[in-house]
Fold this sequence. Notes:
heterodimer, A: 2 domains, ten-stranded mixed β-sheet, 5 helices, 14 strands, rod-shaped, B: mainly alpha, 80% helix, elongated, cell membrane (chain A), cilium biogenesis/degradation (chain A), cell projection (chain A)
Amino acid sequence: MAFYEVYSHPALIRYKTNVCTRATLFVLMVFCLTYIPPLLVAYKSQGFWLKRSTYEEQPVVQFQYQMLMIGATGTAGEFVAWSTFPDFNRLLGSNLRIPAVSVKEEDSNQDGKSDRLRLQLSVPLKAEEQIYSIQLLLTFSYQLFRMSTVVMQSMAFIQHSSSVPGSQLFINGDLRLHQQIPLPHRGLHAAYNVSVVETGSPFATSYDLASIIRAYQARNLTTYLSCPTPVWIIGRAVNAPFQINAEVRYPLETISYRPGFWEMIKFAWIQYVSVLLVFLWLFNHIQTFVFQNQVLPTVPKPLLKTHTQ
Amino acid sequence: MSSISSLVPSRFLTLIAHLVIVITIFWSRENNVRACLPLEYTNEEYNQEDTRLVVALSVTLGLFFVELAGFFSGISMFNNNQSLLSTACHASGAVALLFFLFEQWTCSIYWWIFGFCSVIPALYEMFLLFTVLGLKKKPL
Lengths: 309, 140
């Protein structure tokens, strides 16, 4: 027959005393020293309140089929241009060249969100004209849904110039989001759901690229084309049109946001309680020592009931 | 009392730990003094802050001497109240001064640590010394 411990449970000893005694003072001091230092430790070691966090989401991007293209054909300020805005085209006069446009938006992983835009512009040119630089503006609608709902109109601006005349411009890049401030964690954010280019105004200033970009960059949320280097291909045949091939990807974005109240409290609580456990263990041992050895006088309630005669 | 086997040594250890840290700060007080001063300071300002910290540390050492005198002479060695109070104050003082030294806190914080962790046990020690030596009461 082997004897082994099959079960055990702690027996509670209660220590009683009056309100105005050294033991009460001691317990009050220990209470303060147990619950306040973990807060100080957690706060002073930085990162107690979560002020900024990130999440990943692929945005819902749709090409808005509004474009503006300007190509410089000489060093004396000659240019050709085209856009999808009839007012702008009217202002161009004889500088207007209407290209053949081919657009395709692909959803390669079939998740309902477009992943890539393929754009081809073939700009017809006169035989003696040469293109030296291209400025291209593309508009998109950009939507985020996971935390706060963001609905905005954004754009990608591509500019390339060369000292040699070219026959083709090949652009391949990602449409990236640029945030000036972190997004809120909930709510609707549709302040930028206005068209990037102000249509409906017959004045030329609304199509001035500098003022468009100035107004656009003043936003807190913008998109830009992250393109390492466009490829400028030279050697245009005499009657061939100028080709612009653009491939814009819509990648998975890491978006920074300001966490809400409960997320902040959750992380603060985790930090506080994990340090509190150490202090609780330490001061439990100290209190057990003090009261068991009667360092401060208290009345312990006896374990076994005494029979009164 | 069975508490003697643990209470007296713990009081001694926390006293000595606090003392050691005060002496360490005494010898390497440059960084702490520089932390009290603004980015641009003159030599006079440095010397003034240095003197202040030296005065504070010296007063602390004086109070330590009082408390060690009472402890080693046996007058307050077996007094439960003073043991608990002294252990608690000197333990928190040692931890606070550790942070003061390593995190380079400003000089004004030292006065707070001094007030809570050196003055209180020394005052009670002086009270005990007075009652035993002056009023001829029993030490325990």
